[in-house]
Design brief:
CATH superfamily of the largest domain: DNA ligase/mRNA capping enzyme
Largest sheet: 7 strands, antiparallel
Bound molecules: adenosine monophosphate
Number of helices: 22
Strand content: 15-25%
Radius of gyration: 25 Å
Length: 588
């Protein structure tokens, strides 16, 4: 298929903000898509492989800029100037290519398969000469591109398509294109997406126009699955109303989510972002082999840090480095040990358990996992209808340094990727949010050269990012100086990867730099990528931010490398916090 056709589709879909119109446009596009064009589905999502695949395009703005310069023959400084003026690198490419194309002819017609081919080579490149190889692969595409194609090629490269097509838009468009929006079609398609995390695999089946075809799709051990997410309850009473009585109440552990896959001898770990972290936790491989019965399974769990000497549990931010760190794993394993707390199971001995009731899944977990404290345990749980008992249990969890409690409906299935009303979390008066950085301001004096305040955003109803305040505290003035005995590789990793709670202004600025979108004066707009946990004193209504709210005294507590921008706190959650805060004032 010609890439131009896809670019025209992007343009048309991006031209409307109305969801139904988008669905109509996409559904028309899907209908005329050939089976062989299945990879175009990945491009629609701004990707080159299925969502579960680790290989991403990963091109920085700076590199894209270099490629635009090279392919248009304009010098980098001038391209940079254009970028400062226009603020959208895609639009810069569109303009510069259009200027150039008046004088020269295009060398080749671009096809989607050529685009995919070249883009797929990018993540494979490693070692010496990588940058120039990347530049030549991209430049080859850009020199064949029309101005419209250049616009979307560049936006694809930097991961910012801006056409407002989300997974749910594709789901509903498939339903409309191939199933006439038949009752239940959207749900079946969504289930299929959740099970496979592969939109093209779902498209293959949809093209045959038989809903029953989706039954063939199965969970696969070894392929990451999205986790089920919890809703939020403000009081224990509310929690019981939502999940019903009796229900399971469990400790809400303060660690990070891990899905454990075992397929015979092969054991793999994935985070809630589908990231493969199998190599980072060798000790857990041992626990799984020794203490969990079964040849093949997928377990849902929380890895919780503890102090080796005192055996006290530690908050997430103190152990967050373990997720990304690739060097000196053994040392880290010794310094920051984790206990695996298993609370659910999705697959066992060849069979999916997604539609089994929680009660059964939970019982199976307790049957196959042998408890060995500070290695692997099952979540602490009671089953009760009694609010007083639930409250005492919740208080005990807090006393044990954990975050709160989870309330779980006993008969509900497991819904990957959904925030569900049948699993609810309850935490003390919430003063803690995960937010994404979407802007910053350069400091002055001893902080000049770095961003010294950071704009925080939550997510709105349509997935847009809404500003909620500026954060400047909780961050250190200077980076930690590492002793000279620390090797270069480790040093590099420590400075660029997550340093947990211990980060300085300049380290955080460096971390954000690849995502700078536009600088004007001292302020910078930043692509929503880096997620942070913050505490705050209270929420106020405010006209200063487009969310309508402002956090008072937000304070940085940790980077959240395990979270993506679209999993940050929502405006709804902020509103709830705001309301509950009002309630407390009123009732003391
Ligand atoms: P939150 O991160 O505040 O949205 O709360 C949900 C998270 O709590 C889940 O994603 C898990 O990582 C974590 N969690 C801790 N303990 C449990 C538990 N017993 N059951 C389910 N999730 C838990």
């Amino acid at each position: 298929m010609k890439y131009l056709k896809l670019a025209e589709f992007y343009e048309e879909a991006g031209g409307t903000t109305k969801r139904l119109e988008k669905i109509e446009i996409l559904s028309k596009f899907l209908k005329q898509l050939d089976e062989r064009d299945r990879d175009v589905l990945y491009l629609l999502m701004g990707d080159i492989y299925p969502e579960y695949d680790d290989r991403k395009i990963g091109i920085s703005n700076q590199l894209a800029l270099k490629c635009i310069a090279k392919s248009t023959g304009i010098n980098e400084k001038d391209v940079l100037k254009e970028w400062r003026n226009i603020g959208d690198l895609g639009k810069v490419a569109e303009k510069l290519v259009s200027n150039k194309k008046q004088s020269t002819l295009r060398s080749q017609v671009l096809t989607t398969s050529k685009v995919i081919d070249n883009l797929r080579r990018l993540p494979r490149l490693i070692g010496k000469g990588t940058v120039s190889k990347k530049v030549s692969l991209i430049t080859e595409l850009l020199t064949s591109a029309s101005s419209l194609e250049a616009l979307y090629l560049v936006r694809t490269l930097i991961g910012d398509l801006r056409i407002g097509v989300k997974e749910s838009t594709i789901r509903d468009s498939i339903s409309s294109a191939f199933f006439n929006r038949e009752d239940g079609a959207s749900k079946k398609i969504q289930d299929a997406i959740d099970k496979t995390n592969d939109i093209a695999a779902v498209f293959d089946i949809a093209g045959k126009k038989k809903l029953s075809g989706f039954n063939k799709l199965k969970l696969e051990v070894g392929k990451p699955i999205k986790v089920m997410l919890a809703g939020k309850a403000l009081t224990i009473k509310d929690a019981f109303v939502s999940v019903g009585k009796p229900c399971a109440v469990e400790y809400k552990y303060d660690g990070f989510r891990m899905l454990i896959h075992k397929d015979g001898e092969k054991i793999m770990f994935f985070t809630r972002n589908l990231e493969n972290v199998s190599n980072q936790f060798p000790e857990i491989v041992g626990y799984i082999k020794k203490y969990v019965k079964g040849k093949s399974f997928v377990l849902d769990s929380e890895a919780v840090g503890f102090n080796k000497k005192t055996k006290e549990y530690r908050p997430f931010q103190e152990i967050s480095q373990r997720i990304r760190r690739k060097y000196n794993i053994e040392k880290l394993q010794d310094e920051l040990p984790v206990e695996l707390t298993v609370f659910d199971i999705l697959f066992y001995e060849g069979k999916s358990l997604l539609s089994e009731p929680f009660e059964k899944r939970s019982a199976l977990v307790r049957k196959i996992v042998q408890n060995h404290p500070y290695k692997i345990v099952t979540s602490k749980q009671i089953i009760t209808s009694d609010e007083k008992k639930a409250e005492a249990f919740y208080k005990k969890a807090l006393g044990d340094n954990q975050e709160g409690a989870m309330f779980k409906n006993l008969s509900a299935g497991y819904q990957p990727g959904r925030r569900v009303g049948h699993m609810l979390k309850i935490k003390p008066e919430s003063k803690d949010l995960d937010l994404v950085i979407t802007g910053g301001e350069y400091g002055t004096g001893k902080r000049s050269g770095w961003l010294s305040s950071f704009i925080l955003s939550c997510r709105g109803k349509k997935g847009e990012f809404l500003e909620v305040g500026k954060m400047g505290t909780g961050i250190k003035e200077k980076p930690t100086v590492l002793p000279s005995s620390v090797k270069d590789a480790e040093r590099k990793e420590k400075s660029t990867l997550d340093t947990g709670a211990d980060i300085s202004f300049n380290e955080l600025t460096e971390k954000l730099k690849p995502y700078f979108l536009k600088e004007s004066g001292r302020t910078v707009k930043i692509k929503p990528k880096i997620v942070v946990s913050v505490t705050y004193q209270e929420i106020q209504k405010s006209p200063n931010y487009n969310s309508g709210f402002a956090l008072r005294f937000p304070r940085f507590t940790a980077l959240r490398p395990d979270r993506s921008a679209n999993s940050v706190s929502t405006l709804e959650e902020l509103k709830k916090d705001y309301d509950s805060q009002k309630r407390n004032w009123r009732y003391g």
